[in-house]
Design goal:
heterodimer; A: mainly alpha; 3% strand; B: mainly alpha; 12 helices
C-alpha cells in the first residue's frame, strides 16, 4: 500500500499542472489547426471542410510580411549576438564581485511594461525629439531625415527589447568556463586571440545557441515594435495575424498564418539544432 | 590558479609586460562598452520617469514644458486607467497563486521522482517557454472561438496561469535537485511521517524557490501584452490600456504609474537579494 502510494505520488503532483498545460497549450494548437481548415463566418458559424486553399491564399497574400519578419528576426539576432557577447564575456571574466550588480542593471528594463518601454522609444526617436532635433540643428542630419517608420527603428526596438535574453544565456555559458582551461591554452603558447577562438568561443557556443533561440522566436513574431516604431513598409507577420484575428475576425486565414509561422519556427529550431548537434558530434569524434 | 601562474615556463614571461598593457586596454574598452549598453537600456525608462514630471501644454505629453508634481496627486483621476490597473492586479494575484501551486507540484515531482511521462512533460514545458507568445495567444483564441467561450478576465487568467506555471516549475525543480536527501531520511528515521517530513523539512528548504516563482509569475502576468491582447475580448488590462491610448497620446499618469511600478519592483528585487545574501552568510 505504502509503496503504491509512493509510486503514485509524482502523478498526483504533476496531474493538475500537466492537465492545465495539455488543455490550454496543446489542445489550442489543435483547435487552431482545425480552425484554419474550416469555412464560414462569425455570424453563421464555421464548419470543417478541409479547405487547404486558405493556406495557399494566405501565403500568397502575406508572404512578403512573413519573409520580412524572418529577416528582421535574423538581423536582430545577429546584432544581439555581436552586442551581447562582449558584455557577457566581460561580466563573467572581469565583473569580479560586481557580477550580480551588472546583471541586475541589465535586467532593470523588465520592471517597466514592455509596451510602455517601446512607446518611450517612439518618443525619443520622433522627428523633433531629443535625438534627431539637435543633430539636425547642427547640420549633421538633413532636415528631411526621420527614423520612425523605418526598418532601422523597428530592428533597433527589437534589439533593445530582447537584448537581455541574449546576454543571460551567453553569460551562463562563459561563466562556466574554468579559467584554468584558458590558462592552460596560454601555457601552451596560444596567444590571446587563439585562446579565445579555440577555447572560449567553442565553450560559449551553447549559450549563443540558447540565446539565439530565445531571441529569434520572439523578435520575428513581434508586433508591438513594428506597430509603434514602424510604418506600412515595415509591417510584420505578427501585425497581420493580430489584425486578422482581432480586427477582421477572419479566423481561418489568421489561424492558417499562425500555423505556418509556428511550423517555420519549429523547422528552424530543428535545423539549427541539427547543424549545431552534428558539429558537436564531430568535435567529440575528432578527439 | 596562482600555482598555474608560478609553474608557467620561463620563455613567455618576456612578453608579459606588453601583453598585459594590451589586455588592460581591451578590458577597459569592454568595460566602457558594457556601461554604454546599460545606459542605452535605461534611457527609455529615464525618459518615462522624467515625463511623469512634465507639465504639457496640450494633449500630447511629448515635449518638455516645465516641471510639476501634479500628476502624482491626480494619479487615479482617469477612471478607465485606474480600473485597468486594478483588473491587471487582480488577474496577476489569481494567476500567481494558481500557477505557483500547480508549478510547484510539477517542479517538485520532476526534481524528486523518476516517473513515466516526465520526458513528455519536460518537452511540453520547453515548448511553452520557447513558443512565440503570438502563437500561444492565437491558438487560445482559436480554442475559445471554437468552443464559443466568452472572452474576458477568466480567459486572460487561464492563459496567464498556462505560461507562468512552466517557469515556476523550472525554478522549483532546480532547487529540489540540489536538495540533500539525507536530511529527509534523518527526519524519517526520527519517526516523522512523509507528510510531516515534507512540511517540516522539505518545504522550508524549497520555500525560497517557491517565493522566486511567485515573483516571476506575478511579473510575467502583470506585464503581459501579447497573450492578453488575444484573450481579453473587451476587458482592458494596464498594458492593453496603454496600447489603446497610444494613438490619442498617453496621459502623464501612465508615466507616473510606470515609475511607481518600476520603483516597487526594484525595491522588492533588492530586498530579495539582500535577504538571500544574509541567509547565505548565516549558512
Amino acid at each position: 500500500m505504502n509503496t503504491l502510494k509512493r509510486r503514485l505520488a509524482p502523478y498526483f503532483l504533476v496531474l493538475p499542472g500537466g492537465l492545465w498545460l495539455v488543455l490550454f497549450f496543446a489542445v489550442p494548437m489543435i483547435a487552431m489547426l482545425s480552425l484554419s481548415l474550416q469555412q464560414g463566418d462569425i455570424v453563421n458559424g464555421y464548419s470543417l471542410t478541409w479547405h487547404f486553399q486558405t493556406y495557399l491564399d494566405a501565403i500568397n497574400d502575406y508572404h512578403v510580411q512573413l519573409i520580412r519578419s524572418l529577416i528582421y528576426g535574423l538581423i536582430s539576432t545577429i546584432i544581439m549576438i555581436v552586442l551581447a557577447f562582449p558584455i557577457a564575456y566581460w561580466i563573467a571574466f572581469r565583473g569580479g564581485k560586481n557580477k550580480n550588480t551588472y546583471l541586475f542593471l541589465l535586467l532593470l528594463p523588465f520592471f517597466v511594461s514592455f509596451v510602455l518601454r517601446t512607446i518611450s522609444w517612439g518618443l525619443i526617436l520622433t522627428d523633433n525629439g531629443p535625438v534627431l532635433e539637435p543633430l539636425k540643428k547642427i547640420g549633421l542630419l538633413p532636415e528631411s531625415y526621420h527614423l520612425l517608420g523605418t526598418a532601422t527603428a523597428v530592428i533597433g526596438g527589437l534589439v533593445y527589447n530582447y537584448l537581455p535574453f541574449m546576454v543571460l544565456p551567453i553569460y551562463v555559458a562563459v561563466e562556466r568556463i574554468d579559467p584554468r582551461v584558458v590558462e592552460a591554452a596560454r601555457d601552451l603558447y596560444a596567444n590571446p586571440a587563439l585562446a579565445f577562438r579555440k577555447v572560449i568561443l567553442p565553450l560559449s557556443m551553447p549559450g549563443v545557441f540558447a540565446g539565439a533561440l530565445m531571441t529569434f522566436v520572439p523578435t520575428s513574431t513581434d508586433y508591438v515594435n513594428s506597430s509603434v516604431l514602424g510604418s506600412s513598409s515595415t509591417t510584420m507577420i505578427g501585425q497581420v495575424i493580430q489584425a486578422q484575428y482581432l480586427t477582421n475576425s477572419d479566423y481561418p486565414t489568421a489561424s492558417a498564418l499562425s500555423f505556418v509561422l509556428m511550423a517555420v519556427m519549429l523547422v528552424g529550431i530543428f535545423i539549427y539544432a541539427r547543424v549545431l548537434g552534428t558539429e558537436d558530434v564531430m568535435e567529440v569524434a575528432a578527439r | 590558479m596562482s600555482q598555474a601562474t608560478l609553474s608557467r615556463p620561463a620563455a613567455p614571461t618576456g612578453h608579459t609586460p606588453a601583453r598585459r598593457t594590451r589586455r588592460i586596454g581591451g578590458n577597459s574598452l569592454l568595460h566602457i562598452f558594457t556601461w554604454v549598453v546599460i545606459a542605452w537600456l535605461l534611457l527609455p525608462i529615464f525618459v518615462m520617469i522624467v515625463f511623469g514630471f512634465n507639465n504639457p501644454k496640450g494633449r500630447y505629453n511629448q515635449t518638455w514644458d516645465g516641471f510639476t508634481f501634479k500628476w502624482y496627486g491626480k494619479l487615479f483621476e482617469i477612471s478607465d486607467l485606474t480600473s485597468a490597473l486594478i483588473t491587471s492586479l487582480v488577474i496577476a494575484v489569481v494567476a500567481t497563486i494558481v500557477s505557483t501551486a500547480l508549478g510547484t507540484g510539477i517542479g517538485y515531482a520532476l526534481g524528486r521522482y523518476r516517473f513515466r511521462g516526465s520526458g513528455t512533460l519536460n518537452l511540453i514545458m520547453f515548448a511553452t517557454i520557447s513558443s512565440p507568445e503570438l502563437v500561444m495567444g492565437a491558438s487560445l483564441l482559436s480554442l475559445f472561438v471554437s468552443l464559443g467561450v466568452g472572452l474576458g478576465s477568466v480567459t486572460i487568467t487561464i492563459a496567464h496561469i498556462m505560461f507562468s506555471l512552466s517557469f515556476v516549475a523550472i525554478v522549483v525543480r532546480a532547487r529540489v535537485l540540489t536538495l540533500d536527501r539525507s536530511i529527509e531520511e534523518a527526519a524519517a528515521d526520527l519517526g516523522a511521517t512523509p507528510w510531516t517530513t515534507f512540511w517540516k523539512v522539505t518545504f522550508p528548504i524549497i520555500l525560497p524557490a517557491v517565493f522566486a516563482g511567485v515573483l516571476l509569475a506575478f511579473a510575467l502576468s502583470i506585464d503581459d501584452f501579447v497573450v492578453t491582447n488575444f484573450t481579453a475580448g473587451t476587458t482592458v488590462t494596464f498594458p492593453l490600456w496603454i496600447w489603446g491610448a497610444t494613438r490619442v497620446g498617453l496621459p502623464p499618469q501612465v508615466n507616473v504609474m510606470g515609475t511607481l511600478i518600476f520603483a516597487f519592483g526594484v525595491l522588492v528585487a533588492l530586498a530579495m537579494t539582500l535577504g538571500s545574501r544574509r541567509r547565505s552568510k548565516r549558512a
